[in-house]
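Input for the complex:
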Amino acid sequence: MSGKYGSTWLGFCFLLIASCQFGVQCVRFLDTSEILQRNCSYVRGLHANLIRFITKEGFHRDLEDTVEVTVTNSPIPMSHFTSGECFFAILGKFRPDVFVDPYEIEQNPVLYDSIRVLNNWTDLENPMWLAVSNTTVFVQLTAVPTGNLIATVEVKMPIHFRYQRPVSHSRLKNRLSSNRLVSGPINPGGYVAVNIPLPKLLLRCENWDLMAVEEQCHTVPAVCSRHGDKDEMCSWISVPFKSNSKGNTVFIPVGDTDSRVLVTVLTLLVVLGGKVFLLMTLVREHRRHKIQDSQPEPREHLD
Amino acid sequence: MSSILKHLAVGLVLRLGFLLYGLYQDSASVVKYTDIDYSVYSDAAKYVVDGKSPYLRETYRYTPILAWILTPNSVLLASYGKIVFLLFDLLTSYLIYLIVRHETRPSDIWSVSCSYLWIYNPLPIVICTRGSSESIILCIVLAVLYFFHVEAYVLTGLFYGFSVHFKPYTLPHILPLYLSLGPAQSSWKSIFYLTSSRLKLILGSAVGFALPTAICYYFYGQEFLQETYFYHATRKDIKHNFSLYFYLLYLNSENNSLFLKLVSFLPQIVLLSTVAILFPSKKHASFCIFVQTYCFVIFNKVCTSQYFLWYLSILPVLIPKLKIKWTHAAILLVVWYFAQFAWLLPAYYLEFEGRNTFMYVWLESIAFFCANIGILVQIIKSYHKSTL
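Predicted:
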């Protein structure tokens, strides 16, 4: 019996383990809010897509977000979006690698109209490993409903990358060549991968039954609107969405510690050489001026 | 006299034209004409108007007096500060004229010609109309030189003290000023002789520095000292800049090595004091301050293009004393600009294209450093205390 069914049991166990692993992977990819929102009637019928691009190159880039929501059999009537009673917002949290300059937002009327940096203080100068602030940004989206589709006006948010901790480029090259590092956060060309996590897509309607919403749905506290009071918080529904990416990865140049000794020694030698050359010139000119001083001066002052 | 006034009037029109163009570019283009620092000063001034500390504006690391001067920015006119800066820039031109005239009188040709170098120089015109406050400190330094030349030592001291309060980089200027006011028979002991001129200079300097500093401390306390002075002393800027130390500091950013701190600080100290000790004479004061400032900038751990104005503003005063052919001077100018552009290219690729050009930027910063050393050596060699 056992011999007859042994291989079957073994196959069954293998399948069980494999499916369990698959299940774990699936759950891992599902957002917690997505699981919680299954009972939320308010988001039922809202099929949201976040289209995100990072444009420009280098340390200063733009994060371009557009949201498209198809409304089918939603308990929220389309007219609520048309009238502006219901609206969407994005809540983005950045790691210390990236920051949004609140002063830059304030000075640009277009940005100021939709973006609000929620953290009280932003570290604008320090490199990644010394930065002490994480940026949290609230972006109020302007919806343009047509038929059963709500498209939001594209928001272009300037983001700035910090200097990364210098790394050894050769060590990474070796690890890559010996297949010990298939893909990692660092590119052998001297770049560090910085991930920009996806934001939360929020929905809020004026005059809705807050008790019912909070009972059914996973809510997120955030500022009520772009220009509202910073201390006045509102409950927003976190809307599950699909995106063109699972968070964008940007490669940022990083210094090479392999050249530390070369750079240090050569820099100090050049400084020393420059200093000695200047000192010698100054001393030589000082002597010349002394000789000049000891001789009569024909035309020092014309008067 | 009327000739210089005409040129100053033309200079004013020119600067106002640039200011208006800047307003147009700011409204029409994504690339703004106005310097980012201008918004820092303006925000700080706004905090002052609201009865708050200007240091609430992050990255505001200047004396509060600057924010006080610019308070009309938020209540009267956003470009008010730029107008103030361009007026200081014109005053700088006029001080160049006065200093050179004092040294070359009764001829007016040199003084007017030298002031042209500032009135019509596109670099300071653009910098002041973009809203950089550098024109104020340049004007103060030239006022120090002017009063020193006319032997008004109390005023020299007052302006010098205020210049240190405004921007501490002027601190080493006291050495040539002080040493050149010593007794006729100079020996190393003469350093300690307190002549009446030296006393006036010291007293003026003490008041010029202590009074505004005490007022600012009264209003903003430790925060003012930290942001205006201590920050600059302990600053460790690892982002790419013209200084040849930037890559060294970046790669060693995690080793808090005292050796590196000393090694980067010592050349400045040695050079700045050597110049003053070797040329302790009134007639060499402008030369000493010029060489000191040039050395300070090229050996500094941080160097941006605005720092170049610190020594460039003193150069026109020295022109009549430089025995140099025009072709030679033109070559030096080309070398200076070329070395800058050669640095800017990899720096642009690093910052705006995201290419790993750290090594090239560093090599170009070494090239720029060498070019500056070469230029400074040529200036020192061609300097004669009187070539007129």
